[in-house]
């Protein structure tokens, strides 16, 4: 593989950085934090119509751009840098990748074009109150009902679950876990928004009471589809954390150049230099882990599960570490609500816990490599 981006990918990265810097400034982020829907419909349409981002990695036959997972990772990285508030991760990463991981061609035709155009917002409902993202621990039940199915149970921590028009649910039937599609207006479906520390990322608890559902793919293939989706989502979350880490390092360095103490910029003091240098070393290590994992997903490398857990544990921990150092460098102002440092800190903590904490993924990596 080549860790360097191609000329086309560098151009894409530059376009996206300018776009999100203009469309997702701090005041827009704060505005969407306070909005129950958690996103700006105008920006969502611009992302779809001007740049085709929602369908970037969806095959062209389903209305997407047909690009690789590397381009999707670059997009997520730049959104993480700008802290863009949108249902992109839930819809264009988790839901789209789960559908693609199934072999249900008809479901691909029915749902992927809507996800690619941004006209349909999807999400994945897998974890329950235990917080586990392992498909094998699903307890929500699916019952055959005539030509279809009904679901009973609940899901927690569903990303953008309060606004998703398509929920892809993990449910158990006949001792198998399947992927079930539930329409947003289905009978017996109750959504309860959750209070979250990171207000830029909305989550919800979803309750099902004999809710009509459609089985996607074969019942026995659902667990494998969820595992594939989770590995890819872990890599995408690592890319988002990489973008956030790069941004907080930029914030710290810029402030260290401007803030003066004892008649000189604080960046001239050895302690501050050490902090910034350490952040840079961790950032570049994260970059290597992310780009290797993105390449592996695109190449369908069999080591993707190992690389996904490795990148997730390292990059999300690095993001949280960098956010803490950024606040320390900013001093008293870094702790205030008015300063954006805490917004990145909360996103970093969310990323560290979402889809399984760092300890879980280190243990998973150890199990996968046999130690």
Beta-strand content: 15-25%
Oligomer: single chain
**Which sheet architecture does the biggest sheet show?**
7 strands, mixed
Distance between the termini: 27 Å
Helix content percent band: 40-55%
**Structure class:** alpha+beta
Which series of helices and strands comes N to C? HHHHHHEEEEEEEHEEHHHH
By DSSP, the count of extended strands is 9
What gross morphology would you assign? globular
With helices defined by DSSP (H or I, 4 residues minimum), what is the helix count? Answer: 11
Mean pLDDT: 95
Low-confidence stretches: none
Structure notes:
- The protein is of the alpha+beta class and 371 residues long.
- The chain has eleven helices and nine strands.
- It has helices at residues 7-23, 26-34, 41-49, 69-82, 88-101, 105-117, 222-258, 270-298, 304-330, 341-353, 358-369; strands at residues 122-125, 141-145, 148-159, 166-173, 176-183, 189-193, 203-216, 260-261, 264-265.
- The strands form two sheets. Strands 1, 2, 3, 4, 5, 6 and 7 form a seven-stranded mixed β-sheet that branches.
- A hairpin with a 2-residue loop joins strand 4 (166-173) and strand 5 (176-183).
- The protein is globular.
Keywords:
alpha+beta; two-stranded antiparallel sheet; 11 helices
Give the helix/strand layout.
Blueprint: H1 7-23, H2 26-34, H3 41-49, H4 69-82, H5 88-101, H6 105-117, E1 122-125, E2 141-145, E3 148-159, E4 166-173, E5 176-183, E6 189-193, E7 203-216, H7 222-258, E8 260-261, E9 264-265, H8 270-298, H9 304-330, H10 341-353, H11 358-369
Helix pairs in contact: 1-4, 4-7, 5-6, 5-7, 7-8, 7-9, 7-10, 8-9, 9-10, 9-11
